[in-house]
Specification:
This protein is of the alpha+beta class and 347 residues long. It has eleven helices and six strands. The longest helix has 23 residues.
Length: 347
């Protein structure tokens, strides 16, 4: 496959930085970013669970969905596909904004990225668009019916393929092969079926028809400072990260990601308060708690925002503002906000 210079530049730009890469990278500036968050994140003893078990326990948790995957690559598809299924299961309970559970999906953004690779392959592009539209239409239908959610698995797995394209900025190796449109492996289908059963038994009872849900929350102008940041979901003030992996231990990068989202949200509010014209469409998220849902165990690990020392939070915000000033990515929100970030860094 031959990439145009313009497309190569787009991909290089999109891959320069993300919150995940900042937290896992080894460059000097990435280490600086990590230090800022490590100074504020809570340790594992500070977390609690809804069940009352010891948080992140490798012995107390009961394995409800064993990890039996043979192909390691399937774990990525399962993680993304489960998010789509979870949103629809939640939308069945909370009616008022259920359309947001299947609107403006990351898979649709993936289709936009994919189209750049298919400029000379319109037949594949049309086939992919048709499959995408059909899957989104089925999400919409299932958000308002009582049919078995497992009937959506083939659809969400295709959406997961497209979402991975957006996240990576790269096409799949089998894009020009029939296998690109193949259904997922049996092990993927079975795994998702079991994960749905546990979610409906363990998680769904924790919400109500009056719950407030924000699907795929973004964190305002400051999301762009890290190359784009979006969370899984916010329910009744709780920012959740859904985890389908087999491990249960405490990982500082995972905790730092949720804390990072919270801080980005707070910085965006500061920016908006300083200049209403920046991020005027952003709806501030009143995050009261951050939490992990461990899908294979049906466990929720959480910590309340009130745990954090206010001065420590303000220091972290100031340090992040300073970091962004020193490491700008020249996105539009960054350019518009740079003078405010400088003021926040020097406040």
């Amino acid at each position: 496959m031959v990439l145009t210079t313009e497309l190569k530049t787009d991909l290089e730009r999109s891959g320069r930085m993300s919150l995940t890469s900042l937290l896992r990278g080894s460059r000097v500036n990435q280490k600086e970013f990590q230090t800022i968050l490590r100074e504020v994140i809570p340790d594992k003893k500070s977390f609690q669970t809804i069940s009352g078990k010891k948080a992140f326990s490798k012995t107390d948790y009961e394995v409800l969905v064993p990890y039996n995957l043979v192909k390691s690559d399937n774990s990525s598809i399962i993680g993304i596909a489960f998010d789509y299924l979870a949103r629809i299961m939640l939308a069945r309970v909370v009616k008022k904004n259920r359309d947001e559970s299947y609107s403006n999906t990351t898979a649709e953004k993936g289709m936009m990225v994919l189209s750049k690779f298919l400029q000379n392959h319109r037949s594949i592009e049309k086939k992919t668009e048709k499959r995408l539209k059909k899957s989104i239409k089925r999400l919409k239908a299932f958000s308002n019916n009582k049919r078995d959610i497992k009937e959506l698995i083939l659809d969400v797995c295709f959406l997961a393929k497209l979402e991975r394209i957006f996240r990576s900025g790269l096409p799949p190796m089998n894009l020009f092969k029939k296998s690109f449109f193949d259904d997922p492996d049996d092990e993927v289908i079975k795994d998702l079926e079991l994960l749905c059963d546990v979610f409906q038994e363990k998680f769904i009872p924790t919400i109500s028809p009056t719950s407030e849900i924000t699907y795929n929350p973004n964190f305002g102008a400051s999301s762009a400072f890290v190359g784009g940041a979006d969370g899984d979901i916010v329910i009744d003030g709780v920012l959740y990260d859904f985890k389908t992996g087999k491990k249960t231990g405490y990982k500082w990068q995972e905790v730092a990601q949720l804390v990072g989202y919270f801080l980005l949200n707070e910085i965006s509010l500061d920016i908006q308060n300083a200049d209403n014209s920046i991020g005027d469409s952003y709806q501030y998220l009143d995050i009261k708690r951050i939490a992990f849902y461990r899908a294979r165990f049906g466990e929720v690990e959480y910590i309340d925002i009130s745990y954090f020392d206010k001065e420590l939070i303000e220091t972290a915000k100031k340090n992040l503002a300073s970091y962004f000033v020193k490491n700008p990515n020249f996105s539009k929100p960054m350019i518009e906000s740079l003078h405010i970030l400088k003021a926040l860094a020097n406040d």
